[in-house]
Design a protein that fits this description.
Layout lengths: L1 H8 L2 H19 L11 H15 L7 E3 L5 E3 L7 E3 L1 H4 L8 H4 L5 H15 L5 H11 L12 H11 L2 H7 L2 E16 L2 E7 L6 E23 L2 E7 L5 E3 L9 E7 L4 H5 L6 E9 L11 E7 L8 E8 L6 E21 L4 H10 L3 E2 L2 E4 L4 E4 L2 E4 L19 E7 L5 E2 L3 E2 L5 E2 L2 E2 L8 H4 L5 E7 L12 E7 L2 E16 L21 H16 L1 E5 L7 E8 L3 E8 L15 H24 L7 H4 L7 H5 L6 H6 L8 H27 L1 H7 E4 L2 E4 L7 H18 L7 H11 L3 E8 L9 E8 L3 H14 L14 E2 H5 L9 H10 L10 H5 L14 H9 L4 H12 L1
Antiparallel strand pairs: 1-2, 2-3, 4-25, 5-24, 6-9, 6-13, 6-18, 7-8, 7-12, 10-13, 11-12, 14-18, 15-18, 16-17, 19-22, 20-21, 23-24, 26-27, 27-33, 28-32, 29-30, 31-32
Helix pairs in contact: 2-13, 14-18, 14-20, 14-24, 18-19, 19-20, 20-21
């Protein structure tokens, strides 16, 4: 099953996106090459111009095409394509070619066709016939052994004494210079916390305070008159006089105002006083006939604007005789000097708002003077004369003097949802509250920075007030990553600068930004490791490449008591990101070697350097083969295998030792459970489990087995197993926070918070998902229903990789010690003792192996023997 999947991943459909990413990697490698420190001299510039001119004549990458009848077209996409019919290219070839194509894989049929063709070519008067006879006749020509020829000997002597002429004919050598540099990257570590807007004052009182300034006076006003009179009472002087507007100017006024009022004291501030009559009585005057049949009215109340002068009108209703009539009044001048509604605590408005939103239980009621009017020191104030209660109080009359608000705002207290913990026990924890703000731990940490604050989903009332805020803080690190830039110069040490095309070299594509090139190559590598494909309908271990997705994630959730102490979202200690990155690389190397070994088992294992040492050898067959085979390069062997069978045995032995070494490494660091999840051990033969291959999902699973076993031992809260997994994966930088919400569905209750995440198989998978989803207009879903789907091959092909920022991955590799450094990359580290395949501890580097393999081998003789055999 695992090999079937890997074969599908190596197929053309899946290979295209990987090849595209590799192309992007090359783009990154070369994108800034033009900015490199180019110091070529005029000779090098001229050589480059010559190369460019020659390349301009190349018409197209499509050099030639052929149709089904054998007709060839050279440069099909150029302005002047060249067509050659099959009959001209191969005289006599025409019509049906099935007689030739049918011989594929049939040695006897192929040999018969060859024999027939030889018979024709021996006498045929044609270009192919002439060419054939020329080759055959060359067998009869003399082929002297040039090793004894004087000219050859002189050449050998010259080559052996190059030092004597090197000073005059030294060539120009391109020299690549490396300049060290650094880039700064941020590896974030996002943490969430809660701030509850929960009043500590559970019961409140609202008091209505009203201040009144007043002056009590007695007004006595009378008149001796016949019918109508208007009297003017001056409250400043205490005098009562007949007003000029009175109808009867002959009337005689009497009266007084006691006590008098100080106009300056009352009116200096410009405030307006109101005049209020408290009571009115008859005021007879001794010695005068008194008529009580009259009416009175206040035509003008005394105010600061009219100089504190009141006007009283008396009207006789009993006839037109002359009598005395008068009134005595008790009155007051007053003004409201102050008014306020005072809460017993500044938190009380939040309590009232909480009651209205349902997040607090309680009532709001008037307990003193539940009326729209209030009497203050005898002054009656009603309606708009009084201020209404402050918001958010509703339904309380303006005249109320005291409001009581008994309440309980424990919206976060109560039972959490029951669950089964990692040990199989039923847990039903209680949230008793008591921790209204757990963000202070990050505020006081200088390594943490505030990122954002938002209202927790489900914790907002109808008024818009939020009762639980979730804050996000970044407690990560900023790391400085060493990198290098490159440039090319030419070193010409001799007086003869260049001969032929010695100074003309194809310019290699390089990138001054070494570490970003590494990150780009990792993207292509991890794509093949983090792929998932559905099994094809025909079964048999085949996979439908059309269904393949990469960088898929998995949704996770964890619970937390809001404002309480139960916290199953806490990330654990003891999880090592460096160990996990090492495990990925180690298992990837083992999986890649396993796949390579399967392919090598069907290929020649010995190189030409081995076969040329055989006592009886076909020199031509050996010379045309690779000097070192793929197996030679993998094993690092410099001891020739006697036969293919011996090499095959060596391959199987090396493969088993490689797997055994990897198994023991995993077992030692992560324990037997993790090792057995990744490897099978049948009959003493260790191999990767067939379902594992080199996929990141299984590597993550194995690491979780190891991690959960440690976390359960140190558990504080009995949480669910997937919550322990989530905590470990968050520490490994595998997860993206999708949001949080109140798990309680009852309005006005937020006892339990749920945090939602999408977790991936590697930090790089997560980073790519976060970077490309906005490009592809892909959403993450919601906190309750997150979308963690992988990327299809079509979506991968539409990504603009030039805008994908992998700096965080660079920082992670640097912190994990897995980032190659251009300054310490050398031949031995890459191909020798520093290579993963150095399982014996004595692997020589590639240069040393090449020298050792050629040592004692007569290459010149082999070349001459091969030429003889060709005859």
């Amino acid at each position: 099953m695992g090999h079937g999947l890997m074969s599908s991943l190596r197929g053309p459909r899946f290979a295209r996106p990987i090849a595209f990413l590799l192309s992007v990697s090359i783009y990154w490698v070369s994108a800034t090459a033009a900015r490199a420190n180019h110091l070529a001299d005029p000779i090098a510039d001229a050589a480059a111009h010559g190369q460019n001119a020659g390349q301009a004549f190349v018409p197209s990458p499509d050099i030639a095409t052929a149709d089904g009848e054998g007709n060839i077209t050279f440069f099909p996409n150029s302005a002047t394509p060249l067509s050659i019919p099959a009959g001209e290219m191969f005289p006599g070839a025409s019509g049906d070619f099935s007689a030739y194509t049918g011989t594929y894989g049939n040695d006897a049929a192929m040999q018969s066709l060859g024999t027939d063709a030889q018979a024709v070519l021996e006498t045929q008067q044609s270009y192919p016939g002439e060419a054939y006879r020329t080759i055959i006749d060359s067998r009869l020509l003399s082929m002297p052994d040039m090793r004894t020829d004087p000219v050859w000997s002189q050449t050998d002597a010259t080559l052996n004494d190059l030092a004597s002429i090197a000073s005059d004919f030294a060539d120009c050598t391109p020299v690549t210079t490396t300049v060290a540099g650094t880039i700064t990257t941020r590896v974030p570590d996002y943490r969430t916390c809660e701030r509850l807007y929960q009043p500590s004052q559970q019961s409140c009182t609202l008091t209505h305070d009203i201040g009144v300034d007043q002056f009590l006076v007695t007004l006595r006003a009378g008149v001796y008159f016949q019918h109508d009179a208007i009297l003017a009472a001056d409250f400043k002087t205490g005098r009562v006089t007949l007003d000029p507007s009175s109808p009867e100017q002959g009337a005689i006024p009497y009266g007084e105002v006691v006590p008098t009022l100080d106009y300056n004291a009352l009116c200096a501030t410009g405030d307006s006083y109101s005049y209020q009559v408290q009571g009115t009585w008859d005021w007879p005057r001794p010695g005068y006939p008194y008529d009580a049949s009259f009416t009175w009215s206040v035509l003008q109340a005394p105010t600061c604007q009219n100089q504190l002068v009141a006007k009283i009108m008396l009207t006789d209703v009993g006839g037109w005789a002359w009598y005395f009539s008068g009134i005595e009044q008790q009155a007051r001048l007053w003004k409201k000097t102050s008014e306020s509604w005072q809460w017993s605590s500044p938190e009380c408005p939040s309590v009232v708002q909480g009651i209205q939103d349902g997040f607090c239980a309680g009532t709001v009621q008037c307990t003193v003077n539940n009326s729209d009017c209030a009497e203050i020191n005898g002054v009656r104030l009603c309606g708009t004369q009084l201020e209404p209660p402050p918001a958010p109080v509703q339904g309380i009359p303006n005249g109320c003097l005291r409001v009581e608000v008994p309440a309980n705002c424990g919206f976060n207290t109560g039972g959490l949802q029951c669950y089964t913990d990692v040990n199989g026990n039923l847990q039903c924890p209680q949230n008793d509250g008591g921790n209204a703000d757990n963000c202070t731990q990050y505020e006081s940490n200088p390594n943490c920075g505030f990122i954002s604050s938002r209202c927790l989903e489900g914790a907002q009332g109808a008024s818009g007030s939020c009762y639980v805020y979730e804050e996000t803080w970044d407690c990560g690190v900023t790391t400085t990553v060493p990198t290098a830039s490159t440039g090319t110069t030419y070193d010409c040490v001799g007086p003869i600068r260049c001969m032929g095309n010695d100074c003309v070299a194809q310019e290699a594509e390089r990138n001054p930004d070494f570490v970003r090139a590494v990150a780009a190559l990792n993207t292509a590598q991890f794509m093949s490791m983090d792929a998932s494909c559905a099994q094809a309908s025909q079964g048999g271990g085949h996979y439908d490449v059309n269904t393949c997705t990469v960088f898929a994630g998995e949704p996770y959730q964890c619970k937390k008591a809001v404002g309480g102490v139960v916290d199953c979202c806490k990330t654990p200690d003891g999880v090592s990101l460096a160990e996990y990155i090492n495990l990925i690389y180690k298992l990837n190397d083992a999986g890649a070697f396993d796949t390579a070994a399967d392919w090598l088992s069907t290929s020649p294992l010995r190189g030409a350097w081995e076969s040329l040492r055989d006592p009886i050898v076909n020199s031509w067959s050996s010379v045309k083969d690779w000097f070192a085979s793929a197996w030679n390069n993998l094993s690092g062997s410099t001891t020739a295998a006697a036969t293919e069978q011996a090499a095959s045995f060596s391959l199987e032995q090396f493969k088993q030792q490689m797997m055994q070494a990897t198994y023991e490494w995993v077992n030692q660091l992560f324990g037997p459970d993790a090792a057995n999840a990744l490897f099978s051990n049948a009959g003493g033969s260790v191999a990767l489990n067939e379902s594992v291959g080199a996929t990141l999902q299984w590597i993550t699973t194995a690491y979780m087995i190891y991690t959960i076993a440690i976390l359960v031992i140190n558990v504080i809260w009995e949480c669910e197993e997937r919550e322990f997994e989530l905590g470990a994966k968050r520490e490994l930088k595998l997860c993206t926070h999708m949001g949080s919400y109140c798990a309680n569905k009852v309005l006005g209750s937020c006892i339990e918070k749920r945090e939602s995440y999408c977790c991936f198989s590697s930090p790089l998978s997560r980073i790519i998902q976060e970077q490309v989803r906005p490009q592809l207009a892909m959403t993450w879903g919601s906190a309750e229903n997150p979308s963690c789907t992988g990327l299809s091959l079509d979506q991968i092909s539409r990504v603009d990789w030039s805008t994908v920022n992998l700096d965080e991955w660079i920082g992670i590799l640097n912190l994990a010690g897995k980032l190659p450094n251009a300054s310490n990359l050398n031949l031995d580290r890459v191909t020798g003792s520093g290579n993963t395949l150095n399982i014996y501890g004595n692997r020589p580097d590639a240069q040393t192996r090449a020298v050792q393999r050629i040592d004692g081998l007569d290459t010149t003789g082999a070349r001459i023997d091969a030429g003889q055999q060709l005859r």
